Amino acid sequence: MSRVYNFCSGPAALPEAVLAKAQAELLDWHGKGVSVMEMSHRSDEFVSILVSAKARLARLMNIPDDYEIVFTQGGASASFAQIPANLTSGFDSACYLDTGAWSTKALKEASKYTNVIVSGSSKDVNYTTVPDFSSLVLDETAAYLHLTPNETIGGLEFDALPETDLPIVADLSSTILSRQVDVSKYGMIYAGAQKNVGPAGVVINIIRKDLLARSDNDSLPTVWSYENLAKNDSMINTPPTFAIYLADLVFEWLEGQGGVSAIEQINIEKAALLYGTIDNSTFYSNPIDVRYRSRMNVPFILADESLEKTFLAESEAAGLKTLAGHRSVGGMRASIYNAMPKAGVEALVDFMLAFEKRYG
């Protein structure tokens, strides 16, 4: 069977070159006679992979020296609890922006650990825009301000950060390495790997070192303490070794593409092509405020909703896979992460135009 264009929101498509290299090294990594999956995480071989992954990520994102890279397990959903458990010790509250499904889940988990201040919300407009930053309710004595700058389900993406002295904690699961970010503006960045980095199973955490001291190691589970994890190079217990290895291969691939600035330009072109097709049609529409449309996750609906099943069946038959919108919102959604080539978006656009011609 030939490869299809996979528009899944996560676990998402991986670069074919990465999959091919992993396949070639699956039984015998670098002449060692074993797979990465079989290596001791304490071995020199795996430690070299871990060192490489951290160094490549630091280069790609220009991570300053006063930040630590920590790999954790449990996905970003576990981080929703792990973050307040680590960062709110000694504080009475944490501020959260409510901009969609994932930020809502994050603040609900945080409320189990601290008083959550909903500093701004776009719930009243069905999460189709970003709250006005000038009207945010921020407690500058809070532990941090949490953001979800890209809402994967709704297709909403911030174009800036609020002005605040609070450490900004951001879930970049859907956008990490897809665009340039100034890491120094954040107290912490975290991201599940299964969208732009690699397979499910590992979370990347980029934490300003002064925040590590907030971890209350007397009350936290040992493997949940960011401070302990940093001191033990993410290896208090066995880390997800194969996921880290594949992340390193993706980082290597991204460096070969010219780095984040180069892939960002391609992502801009892909998104412009798809949104242009939607906007130039009365058959398709996108509900998000144009200023805040996501480059990575593009939802769209048909003027005639009764054609959705037909659209999904015919698109899959055409080799365009996983275009159904999230079950909570319906419609269609194309996730066009770094590994989605421009040719895949062009194929989707060609199909959309032909489908409109047939049924419009």
Description:
This protein has about 350 residues and is of the alpha/beta class. It folds into two domains: about 15-255, Aspartate Aminotransferase, domain 2 (3-Layer(aba) Sandwich); about 260-360, Aspartate Aminotransferase, domain 1 (Alpha-Beta Complex), CATH 3.90.1150.10. Helices cover about 35% and strands about 15% of the residues. It contains ten helices and 14 strands. The protein has helices at about 15-25, 45-60, 75-85, 100-110, 210, 225-230, 240-255, 260-280, 310-315, 340-360, and strands at about 5, 65-70, 95-100, 115-120, 145, 150, 155, 170, 190, 205-210, 285, 295-300, 320, 330-335. It has a seven-stranded mixed beta sheet with strand order 2-10-9-8-5-3-4. Strand 3 (about 95-100), helix 4 and strand 4 form a beta-alpha-beta unit. It is globular and about 65 Å long. The model has no long low-confidence stretch (mean pLDDT about 95). It is an enzyme of class 2 (transferase). One of its GO terms (biological process) is L-serine biosynthetic process. Homodimer. Pathway: Amino-acid biosynthesis; L-serine biosynthesis; L-serine from 3-phospho-D-glycerate: step 2/3; Cofactor biosynthesis; pyridoxine 5'-phosphate biosynthesis; pyridoxine 5'-phosphate from D-erythrose 4-phosphate: step 3/5. Catalyzes the reversible conversion of 3-phosphohydroxypyruvate to phosphoserine and of 3-hydroxy-2-oxo-4-phosphonooxybutanoate to phosphohydroxythreonine.
